[in-house]
Amino acid sequence: MDNHVAPVPLEKAYRLINHGPTVLVSARHGGVDNVMAAAWACALDFDPPKLTVILDKQTLTRGLIERSGHFVIQVPTAAQLQLTYEVGNRSRANVPDKLERAGVQWFGVDGHDVPLVAGCSAWLACRLMPEPHMQDTYDLFVGEVVGAWADTRVFANGHWNYEHADPAWRSLHYIAGGQFYAIGASLKADPLK
Amino acid sequence: MDNHVAPVPLEKAYRLINHGPTVLVSARHGGVDNVMAAAWACALDFDPPKLTVILDKQTLTRGLIERSGHFVIQVPTAAQLQLTYEVGNRSRANVPDKLERAGVQWFGVDGHDVPLVAGCSAWLACRLMPEPHMQDTYDLFVGEVVGAWADTRVFANGHWNYEHADPAWRSLHYIAGGQFYAIGASLKADPLK
């Protein structure tokens, strides 16, 4: 594991996706590792942390998650703009070398049998909480976060440091047609009076 | 209705929240209008457009939605930073003049009996799709978007124009403790080869 990757306390894991970034969803089953992009992922609870993610029935990653019961939600960076777009718009079903073409590199974490994408800013290892009706009707999957890590160059002490890190670390927020926004300036509200 | 507020075609409504902004959730029932902030709202489907939002059992707005079956998801702006923080951190149950203190002003749209918060950048009028198990277990509510509008000064022709609009129009992305990020720079991926 990279020297800069550090565990995040589970009760603060929601902060890794609270700002609504587009994420990468990865999973492993039967000797196959895959990853896709998803703009529709969202925190669901604080402690224990949970999240939702929408996974189209046609994606190979969904099948890996249904069979293994585990997945990883990770936060890609502006430096991974092209990787994110490519893994979100090609399927291994049609493009067998999708991962190589996009430049995906994996790493692992002891105690978690899931593939993590190198170079991201944060990772949330999740256990699928089966909700068959929501999965079938809405493609909505619920995960309980069982492990969380972040790159200390952009997230430390429970806080993002986008404003002090290199802009290449900024999160990506997809709109449509290959167009994203990076996260921007920090704004602080006044305390309640 | 403000001159700058224009309808958004329903098949493009998902783009109004695809970048994961913190939203305001408003509803009306029995002569009461209320609004709260929610960081956990997410697109769920394209056409017909649907979305999810997490609503804590203690919020007054949740009760209005359960009773009326309708609500509005709207995208507040950087100019509404303090308003957003205040309506997310005070309840009318304890602070009866919460809306006046936060400076909330309403407007309406013909054909939709729901209150819209003036000054936002986009509004999605939703019909509650009852999912009792998800509501009870996870506080997760599903809405079908039945009307969508945006301020043409920042969203036009199906696209956000944050990069050309005044920074006061930028969306807010909440982290914790009163700290938000504004949306930032536009980034465009290369077409697939």
UniProtKB/TrEMBL annotation, chains A, B:
Pfam families: Flavin_Reduct. InterPro entries: Flavin_Rdtase-like_dom (IPR002563), Flavoredoxin (IPR052174), Split_barrel_FMN-bd (IPR012349). Residues 15-166 form the Flavin reductase like domain. SUPFAM superfamilies: FMN-binding split barrel. The keyword Zinc-finger does not apply. One of its GO terms (molecular function) is oxidoreductase activity, acting on the CH-NH group of donors, NAD or NADP as acceptor. Keywords: Flavoprotein. Its cofactor is FMN. Belongs to the flavoredoxin family. This is Flavin reductase family protein.
